[in-house]
Amino acid sequence: MQRGCQGCRSDGENFDLAMAFQPIVDCETGDPFAFEALVRGSNGEGAAEVLSRVTPENRYAFDQQCRVAAIKGAVEAGILDSGARLSINFLPNAVYSPAACIQLTLKTARDVGFPADRLIFEFTENEQMIDTDHVRSIVASYRKMGFTTAIDDFGAGHAGLGLLAKFQTDLIKLDMDLIRSIDESEPRAIIVSGVVAIAGALGIAVIAEGVETVGEYNALREIGIRYMQGYLLARPGFKRLPSPLSMAFAKNTLRTASQAETLVHPAVFTAPSTGHWPMPALYHVSGS
Questions:
Q1: Residue 233: φ, ψ to 5°
Q2: Of the candidates 132, 178, 170, 133, which has an alpha carbon nearest to the alpha carbon of residue 154?
Q3: If we measure between CA atoms, which residue out of 80, 1, 68, 6 comes closest to residue 37?
Q4: Cα(first)–Cα(last) distance of the chain, in Å?
Q5: Which residues fall within 8 angstroms of residue 123, CB to CB, at 6 or more apart?
Q6: Kind of pairing, strands 148-154 and 119-124?
Q7: What sign has the CA pseudo-torsion 269, 272, 278, 283?
Q8: Dihedral, 74, 145, 195, 22 alpha carbons, nearest 10
Q9: Ramachandran angles phi, psi of 179, nearest 5°
Q10: What is the rounded distance in angstroms from the CA atom of residue 283 to the CA atom of residue 254?
Q11: Which residues contact 161 (CB under 8 A, 6 or more apart)?
């Protein structure tokens, strides 16, 4: 087994992390496909405050601590009682050797009994990739190890379709700027439809993130997107796994924003006895 480089052996700064979790919902079943781990401070401090402390010198320690906190936090929150996967953001520039730098992650998963094949590793294309060949090597190594891989914020940042030409992940998550008001924007709908078609031809599943309105939800479903994430479905829960609003049921009854406002906000939405969870309405259906 590779022993790793100096970065892998360096303990670095203690970031004192905790995680919030937001479901990625399978809209055909209403159940969580996965929960994304979102970094927070131990007392709930926002991601921006935590990320402001990350430097090139301590980013390896930060990346490793995020992985550990995500896995331990998800298990403590009860993810083993579901079939959902766990999606962890990682920093490609902090991975010196995929095989060496994954060892603490694997050990943590073993220690808490979390199946490693339920891990998703997602990286954002907003992060400047110093060496795309290195990122391609990480993706290939992770897929070979049985992990699911994803590009976050697809359609924004340093790359887009050009990135898919260099390597393919299992999932892409569409940036929320493409999703916003897609039901009222023909150009956005055309672009997203095109990306979905390209992804399908490459064998890549698409996740729409930042879904906030019923109109956006319905437009995305018509395009053929099965997996969604956003405030409409569930807000992140600090150290807990929120139950998503079952839009698989709601889509049959909530056709307009005004109907959604009447039925879902601010009253409590209660799903019928079909196995979907009741969910308090905490969402803005006409904006964020």
A1: -90, -40
A2: 178
A3: 68
A4: 48
A5: 89, 90, 91, 92, 135, 150, 151, 152
A6: parallel
A7: negative
A8: 0
A9: -85, -30
A10: 14
A11: 195, 198
Helix (H) or strand (E) holding 262: helix 257-264
Ramachandran area for residue 13 (φ above 0: left; ψ -120 to 50: alpha; else beta)? beta
Name residue 245's amino acid. Answer: L
Q: pLDDT tens digits, the chain, 288 residues: what are they? A: 344 454 554 456 899 999 999 999 999 999 999 999 999 999 999 999 999 999 888 989 999 999 999 999 999 999 999 999 999 998 887 888 899 999 999 999 999 999 999 999 998 755 556 678 888 899 999 999 999 999 998 987 655 788 888 889 999 999 999 999 999 999 999 999 999 999 999 999 999 999 999 999 999 999 999 999 999 999 999 999 999 876 544 454 444 443 443 333 322 222 322 233 222 222 223 333
Angle at 228 between CA 226 and CA 229, to 5 degrees: 165
What is the pairing mode between strands 171-174 and 148-154? Answer: parallel
Provide Rg for the chain, Cα atoms. 19
* Residue appearing with tokens 């879904």: 211
Kindly report the pTM of this predicted structure: 0.82
How far is residue 260's CA from residue 265's CA, in Å, rounded to a whole number?
A: 7
Phi, psi of 170 (to 5 degrees): -75, -30
**DSSP classification of residue 103:** H
**Strand positions, DSSP E, 67-219:** 85-89, 119-124, 148-154, 171-174, 205-209
User: Among all chains, which residue has been given the structure tokens 């730098």?
Assistant: 101
